[in-house]
Amino acid sequence: MRIEMDTAVLRSSIRDIPDFPKPGVMFKDITPLLAEPAAFSTAVDAIVVSFGRGTIDKVVGIEARGFIVAAPVAYHFGAGFVPLRKAGKLPYDTVAQTYDLEYGTETLEVHADAFAPGDRVLIVDDVLATGGTARAACDLVEHAGATVAGLAFVIELGFLGGGARLDGYPYTSLLQY
Ligand code: AMP
Fold first, then answer.
1. CB of 106 shorter than 6 A to ligand 1
2. Average pLDDT, stretch 33-56?
3. What does the mean pLDDT of the chain come to?
4. CATH class of the domain whose range is 52-176
5. Are strands 120-128 and 147-156 parallel, antiparallel or unpaired?
6. pLDDT band at residue 85, thresholds of 50, 70 and 90?
């Protein structure tokens, strides 16, 4: 689903950092967006509007920048917030999902009791790039007994084709590059 909105305030508040964290990567820095009141509230509201109140029980934020956007989205939904973290960070019993990166693997974890059976979950992150992280998040939420209602990203790097990894799951991105 693509929502119609004036994205100029959002687009003008994304800072491109070349060669970060390694050569060849154009890092999309959302900290200017977070610091600009109109941009931050527009981004949060746009995600809430694109799914609609009453449709989401839990909002999952992916460590770490996903937390910042997911928490106010959860508040506006009247939903709970669930952190999805890198291995070894969560204190209680966890469910884990390992996925491939360009070099090596990464593991995401969620608390084993984070969801009630059938909870409708919205997964939120700052950037959809290759889609590996988002797909692992979907698998993890399902292994933990909940239902993925959709995903939302501030930025989608369309040239990396991450959307194709999310076939079957509704998702929205506020800015496409
Ligand atoms: P991917 O699994 O390739 O879709 O990568 C998504 C994750 O990596 C997200 O959690 C993003 O925060 C981060 N990420 C990947 N590429 C970028 C980028 N160009 N700028 C900022 N964050 C990125």
1. no
2. 96
3. 95
4. alpha beta
5. parallel
6. very high
* Positions marked catalytic: 65, 102
Nearest alpha carbon to residue 44 among 15, 66, 22: 66
The answer to whether the CB of 83 falls within 8 A of the CB of 67 is yes
Identify the helix (H) or strand (E) that includes residue 158: none
pTM of the model: 0.96
- Pocket of ligand 1 contains residue 131 by CB under 6 Å: yes
- The strand pairing partners of 173, in sequence order, are 153
Indicate the top mutation candidate among 62, 99, 127 to test ligand 1's pocket, ranked by most ligand atoms within 8 A of CB.
127
First to last CA, the chain: 17
Q: How far is CA 162 from CA 151, 158, 165, in A?
A: 12, 7, 5
